[in-house]
Design goal:
two-stranded antiparallel ribbon; alpha/beta; 5 helices; globular; 185 residues; 5-stranded parallel beta sheet; Oxidized Rhodanese, domain 1; 7 strands
C-alpha cells in the first residue's frame, strides 16, 4: 500500500512539473458568463456523445481549468501556449491566435479520427507533448472543448487546459475577438 501511495505521489509531482504556472491575477478575479457556475455535474473521463450544449462539470480529470482573467494574462506572458477552438460552425469569431479545429469535440472517434486529431495536435505543438494546450468552445454549457481536452489527454499531452468560459466569457469580458480560419485536420 505504501508503495502505491509513493508511486502515486511521484506521478502527481511529475505531472505538476510538466505544467506551466497560471499567472497570478488580482483577487477576487472577475468571472464571466457562468464560467465558474457549478451545476453539480460530475467530471468524467468519457467523452459526451450527444447533447453537447448542456451543463458541464467544473473540473477536468487529468487536466486543469482556467478562467478568463488567468487566460488573458497567460496569453500575454507565454508564447508557447497553443489555443484550440473546437466549436462546430460555418463561421467563427474566437480568441485572437486560436486555431479552429471545427468538429474536434463532437462525434465518436475511432482509430482513424484519433490519429487525425493527434496529427493535428502534433502540427500545432511542433511535436511537443509538454506544450500547454488550451481548449475552448462557446462556454460553460458546451461539452465540445471538454471532449477535445479528454482526447488530447488520451493522445498523451501533459498540460491540457480547459477554458470552460469559452468565447461567451471572453466576449462578456470585452476582450478582442477575431474571425477564425479553419485549421485543416
Amino acid at each position: 500500500m505504501r508503495y502505491l501511495i509513493c508511486l502515486l505521489l511521484l506521478l502527481v509531482s511529475q505531472l505538476a512539473a510538466a505544467q506551466i504556472q497560471f499567472p497570478q491575477v488580482a483577487q477576487p478575479a472577475p468571472v464571466y458568463s457562468d464560467e465558474d457556475k457549478n451545476w453539480n455535474v460530475e467530471p468524467t473521463t468519457s467523452v459526451k456523445r450527444s447533447n453537447y450544449h448542456s451543463s458541464t462539470p467544473t473540473s477536468l480529470p487529468g487536466g486543469r481549468v482556467i478562467k478568463t482573467s488567468e487566460l488573458k494574462e497567460l496569453l500575454a506572458t507565454n508564447s508557447q501556449v497553443v489555443v484550440v477552438d473546437v466549436l462546430d460552425d460555418k463561421k467563427r469569431d474566437t480568441i485572437p491566435g486560436a486555431n479552429w479545429l471545427s468538429g474536434a469535440g463532437s462525434g465518436i472517434f475511432y482509430g482513424a479520427e484519433k490519429a487525425r486529431f493527434a496529427t493535428a495536435l502534433e502540427k500545432l505543438t511542433a511535436g511537443d507533448k509538454n506544450r500547454p494546450l488550451v481548449f475552448l468552445c462557446l462556454g460553460s454549457m458546451c461539452w465540445l472543448s471538454y471532449n477535445a481536452s479528454l482526447r488530447a489527454l488520451e493522445a498523451g499531452y501533459k498540460d491540457v487546459i480547459w477554458y470552460r468560459g469559452g468565447t461567451d466569457a471572453w466576449g462578456e469580458a470585452k476582450l478582442p475577438m477575431k474571425r477564425a480560419d479553419p485549421f485543416g485536420w
